[in-house]
Specification:
The complex is a heterodimer of chains A (442) and B (296). Chain A is an alpha/beta fold and 442 residues long. Helices cover 38% and strands 18% of the residues of chain A. Chain A is built from 16 helices and 16 strands. In chain A, the strands form four sheets. Chain A has a six-stranded mixed β-sheet with strand order 4-5-6-1-7-8, sandwiched between helices. A six-stranded mixed β-sheet of chain A has the order 12-13-14-11-15-16, sandwiched between helices. With 296 residues, chain B is mostly helical. Classes of the chains: A alpha/beta (442), B mainly alpha (296). At the A-B interface, helix 10 of A face helix 7 and helix 8 of B.
Chain lengths: 442, 296
């Protein structure tokens, strides 16, 4: 299958260049070509006036192209010093290693990204944002002139994201170029200079981001007008369904749960799921890991939590799967296809369908739109509204403040494993929620 | 059928053709019958091994369990199955319930059981009760019964792997344990039951094996784990769990059994058998990492 055709992408020194597009638009493929992970069938890459038909990973590194992946790929069992040394110099089998100078170098690099971390610590003991900083330090260690950040804020809280932006601006001031990939459009307007929109493997446009509005950008990505970013509907609130950590959840209500990464939201949700009756359904965070079982068929996945009697009933399974396929606009070749053949947004729909099939009264969604493209995102939001309308009580955990503000009837804020505040939709502002998350004001 | 199972089938057909030309005596009825009877314990053990591999674990203690169960036959035939279930419960509790690494746990049970048996028998053969052989039936009828029983077991398991909720839980657990847990599948029970089932299958294998003799060596079942793992893996099961079929396992067992017999018929030293089994495991592992990685 052709992933890219007619893509034209240029990067100036000292700019932050946003690369956007729905899932499957070709962003990852373009990045892979730049890092030498895959080779393009046609076209050339010009770096500093020199033309290359293709790059290899080592050539890309030599040319100063560094990448920080969405999920940091540190070696957990090695120390920070070892991680950085490995990333910068590669593994060498020759001679004795001079650990003192390496440690010094690692400390310098960490300082340059504004991290104060003990270099003797094991990478596995670091938080996700800290691991990310180590990755950036690693890239800077190879003197990367081009730094690719792939969904860097996907698992960062707002505060950590702000730290990252400060760092990105500083790197830009040093004359480095940054390719910034993100699904969070707000932050692009905050951080990027120019934006390139990819759709269906083609460049749609490259222009200064200040010339675009958010609405226009979404339209360019989707190729269609999205009337509303959050299709929130007012639904009459019904009877109480469940109490989670002191919060009463009512039928028809969407309660958003905000908090920094590590505030204990996922743990709370899983405790509720495992301790309460079958009425509660929990859609786990990180669909790719734990939401679906990729090898199994769409219908087996959808019925996994509901229709498991001793003897399987394939007709009933197919019927249920087909019903959800229609209801959720699930795009799949057939309900017998393995889930691994579906796109990310559609896999997420399968994960949701699995829980809807159990007929729950309470649905806990953990980061339901993380890493999902704009189109699928608003479909999932619309589905949440439909479900609320039908009397479901929904708890939505999200690290994306606009989503929390846009979708919730009430917002619960968690900090250090405690609920520190509950705010009504009418009173909620970004500042208010953020300061509760941080614990600045009481 | 995946690449490996198809390759195994192709290899099997090739060996059968070679035997047809070079040693047509291989196809004599008596030989085929003995070959089948000799390999039925391996086949039944492999069914249990398939389940264990499906949940992404391994059980290298099946050989020792086989000896234990064979000893238990001398007390009373149903005791064989009970002993297998008991050994499986120990493995299941440690690997399944407590979540310890199965390679270490079953290495422990393998050695502990084997040496306990060696100590208790002092190396003497285990005498089976008189009248036990062929369960008092004629040899002919007994042989046919064993073959039919094995065939039924294979058909039932092949059907059950696809059509029962419990075994779908086994596949789901092996494909992604955390995912299965979050789907509300009682992963711990599934893992535990799988090891217990593996033990029960070994018990049945030992029982059917013992039916053919009036005494059993205390070293019975040596190397059975290697054969069973090789058969299941050659048959296309994933060492990482979540993938594997009954048909593939039958092909794997048949291939290994035929290779063993072919060596004799082609005049090659039987000492090569284990070396060939080892190479086959390596080839299967290689095929898994090379050819079947495309998923995702």
């Amino acid at each position: 299958m052709q992933a890219l055709k007619g893509v034209d992408f240029s990067l100036e020194a000292g700019e932050v260049h946003a690369l956007v597009g729905e899932n499957g638009a070709g962003k990852s493929t373009l990045v892979k070509i730049l890092t030498g992970a895959v080779t393009a069938d046609a076209g050339t890459i010009t770096v500093g006036g020199q033309q290359y038909p293709a790059l290899t990973p080592s050539l890309a590194k030599e040319l100063g192209i560094g990448i920080v992946y969405q999920q940091p790929s540190v070696f957990g069992e090695l120390t920070i010093t070892e991680n950085i040394a490995l990333g910068v110099e590669g593994a060498s089998v020759k001679g004795k290693i001079d650990w003192d100078s390496r440690k010094q170098r690692a400390e310098e690099l960490l300082q340059s990204v504004g991290a104060s971390i003990d270099c003797n610590r094991l990478a596995s003991s670091l938080s996700l944002p800290e691991q990310q900083l180590v990755e950036i330090a690693k890239a800077l260690g190879t003197d990367a002139k081009v730094l690719i950040l792939d969904e860097p804020t996907a698992s960062l809280s707002e505060v950590d994201a702000q730290h990252l932006f400060t760092l990105v601006r500083r790197l830009r001031a040093e004359g480095r170029s940054i390719i910034y990939i993100s699904h969070r459009l707000e932050e692009l307007f905050e951080i990027a200079d120019r934006v390139t929109v990819l759709r269906d493997g083609q460049t749609i446009t490259t222009q200064p981001i200040c010339d675009l509005s958010r609405q226009e950008l979404v339209r360019l990505m989707a190729g269609r007008e999205l009337s509303q970013v959050f299709p929130k509907r007012g639904v009459p609130i019904g009877e109480k369904r469940i109490t989670i950590a002191g919060i009463d959840l009512h039928a028809g209500e969407i309660v958003g749960m905000a908090g920094l990464v590590g505030a204990g939201r996922t743990e709370l949700a899983q405790d509720v799921f495992f301790e309460s009756s079958s009425e509660v359904a929990y859609l786990p965070e990180d669909r790719r890991k734990h939401g679906v079982i990729p090898e199994m068929s769409v219908s087996a996945n959808i019925t996994l939590a509901s229709l498991q009697r001793f003897f399987l009933d394939f007709d009933a399974e197919r019927q249920i799967a087909e019903a959800f396929r229609e209801k959720l606009l699930l795009k799949t070749h057939s309900v017998e296809s393995p889930v691994s053949t579906l796109s990310g947004g559609n896999q997420q729909k399968v994960a949701i369908a699995r829980w809807l099939a159990t007929g729950p009264g309470v649905l806990i969604l953990d980061e339901p739109t993380q890493g999902v493209d704009v189109g699928a995102k608003s479909e999932i939001h619309r589905l949440m509204c439909d479900l609320a309308e039908q009397g479901m009580a929904i708890l939505m955990i999200s690290s994306e403040l606009p989503e929390i503000l846009g979708m919730s009837d009430r917002i619960a804020v968690m900090r250090q494993n405690r609920i520190v505040g509950i705010v009504d939709r009418a009173d909620a502002t970004q500042d208010k929620i953020l300061s509760l998350m941080l614990g600045e004001s009481e | 059928m995946n690449l490996r199972a198809r390759a195994a089938l192709a290899a099997l057909v090739m060996i059968l053709l070679v035997l047809g030309v070079a040693a047509p005596r291989f196809y004599e009825m008596a030989n085929l019958r003995d070959l089948a009877l000799n390999n039925i314990p391996v086949l039944i053990t492999s069914i249990g091994m398939l389940l264990v591999l499906l949940i992404g674990r391994i059980d290298i203690s099946v050989g020792s369990q086989f000896a234990l169960c064979s000893m238990a036959v001398s007390i009373s035939p149903p005791m064989a199955i009970l002993a297998g279930g008991l050994a499986g419960t120990v493995n299941g509790f440690l690997c399944g319930w407590m979540g310890l690494p199965s390679i270490v746990v079953t290495l422990g049970t393998m050695v502990a059981l084997r040496d306990a048996i060696r100590w208790s028998t002092q190396g003497a053969w285990i005498q089976l009760p008189t009248g036990f052989q062929w369960a008092g039936l004629s040899q002919e009828v007994g042989q046919i019964l064993i073959l039919i029983l094995a065939l039924v077991l294979v058909l039932v398991m092949g059907w059950a792997l696809k059509n029962t909720g419990l075994l779908r839980f086994v596949y789901a657990t092996g494909a992604d344990e955390e995912s299965a847990r979050l789907a509300g599948i009682p992963v711990k029970y599934v893992r535990m039951l799988t090891f217990v089932a593996a033990g029960l299958f070994v018990g049945l294998a030992a029982l059917l094996n013992a039916l053919r003799f009036n005494e059993i060596q205390p070293s019975a079942g040596m190397g059975l784990e290697l054969k069973a793992i090789a058969a299941v893996v050659v048959g296309g099961a994933s060492i990482r769990g979540g993938r594997g079929t009954m048909l593939g396992t039958v092909i794997g067992v048949t291939l290994l059994g035929v290779i063993g017999a072919a060596l004799t018929f082609l005049g090659i030293s039987a000492y090569w058998e284990k070396a060939i089994q080892g190479v086959i495991i390596l080839l299967a592992a290689l095929a898994e990492s090379l050819g079947e990685r495309r998923a995702g």
